[in-house]
Amino acid sequence: MVTSKTKPSSAPFVSVDSEELILVNRSDEQVGFMAKDKCHDGDGLLHRAFSVFVFNERGQLLLQQRSAQKRLWPLFWSNSCCGHPRRGESMRDAVPRRLLQELQMTCELRYLFKFIYRANFAGVGSEHECCSVYAGISSDSVQANTHEINSWRYVTPEQLDRQMKTRSQIFTPWAILEWERIRRDFRDIAAAL
Question: Which of 56, 63, 138, 178 has a 20 to 30 A CA-CA distance from 105?
Answer without folding.
Answer: 178
